[in-house]
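One such shown below:

_____
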Amino acid sequence: QGRLYALLGAIPDTIGYYPPFMSLQYAFGQLAAGQINDHAARAGLLFLHLGSILATYMLGARLFNRRVGIVAAGIWALYPHVGDWSRAGDLEIPLASAFTLASAFFLLAWTQTRPHRVYASLAGLMLGIGMWIKPTMGAFVLGVGLMLLIDLVRVRFDWRACRPRLEIALITGLASAPLGGLWYVRNLILGHSPVDFPPGYW
């Protein structure tokens, strides 16, 4: 698909399926090179892999301390499965980066004594990017819903006591919508299914 986008200069209306995050990275690399070149297309994989390592470090460092961040990033970087997926250029590495950063920012907002709108907005931005990578990023939304439910039980369904946490979730959702929903709305407008999973997915 990256070659096709580079040759056409656009995403054909006939294409639906997953959001074209990785395909666009390949297309941009080839457009920058001025030719169809697999080496240019794959040049961005290094930065995606480094981004996933930095995201892991940030999650550990911001929620615990720098030592935890370094150890977590080291484990992630040296885990053979991660290296294999990074080399293949699959969606899982950039998706892991977006999910990790969204989780880090959301938990930073969640654990503040007062609602931290900046962290919640950053979590939403990363959620939106993740939804542009792969629809399974929606699992993050399920996690947020579960955290809200647990918090409601904790405060014995006192909505006033839960309001700060609800505000964090709402800000995150609103911040994610413009980018996160773009591809799926586009699919609906063009008559495609908003979300497609492989036939054997279930």
Q: What stands out?
A: Residues 159-180 form the longest helix (22 residues). The mean pLDDT is 85. Residues 2-189 form one domain.
